[in-house]
């Protein structure tokens, strides 16, 4: 597929890229090369190819999903300037 200079100008405008007039022929040629490469990729038969998420098959380490409070309440509240009844105490802001 061949891209002309006017199409390259339009694509540059849509992409909000400022391209000088003397660079438009090179840009059009580059776009054409990219589209030719995509056409080559479309010719490859990938019907029986399984999609990959990685080049090496690995199973992720998993842990049991258990809900806990962490049991760190005393450690966390020890950093607070004012803690009361197991909670952070803050000054009243709204009357």
From TrEMBL:
Keyword entries, A-Z: ATP-binding, Ligase, Nucleotide-binding, Protein biosynthesis
The EC number(s) this enzyme carries: 6.3.5.-
Record-linked InterPro entries: Asp/Glu-ADT_sf_sub_c, GatC
Pfam families: GatC (PF02686)
Reactions it catalyzes: L-glutamyl-tRNA(Gln) + L-glutamine + ATP + H2O = L-glutaminyl-tRNA(Gln) + L-glutamate + ADP + phosphate + H(+); L-aspartyl-tRNA(Asn) + L-glutamine + ATP + H2O = L-asparaginyl-tRNA(Asn) + L-glutamate + ADP + phosphate + 2 H(+)
Family: Belongs to the GatC family.
Described function: Allows the formation of correctly charged Asn-tRNA(Asn) or Gln-tRNA(Gln) through the transamidation of misacylated Asp-tRNA(Asn) or Glu-tRNA(Gln) in organisms which lack either or both of asparaginyl-tRNA or glutaminyl-tRNA synthetases. The reaction takes place in the presence of glutamine and ATP through an activated phospho-Asp-tRNA(Asn) or phospho-Glu-tRNA(Gln).
Cited HAMAP family: GatC (MF_00122)
Self-association and partners: Heterotrimer of A, B and C subunits.
Name listed for the protein in its UniProt record: Aspartyl/glutamyl-tRNA(Asn/Gln) amidotransferase subunit C
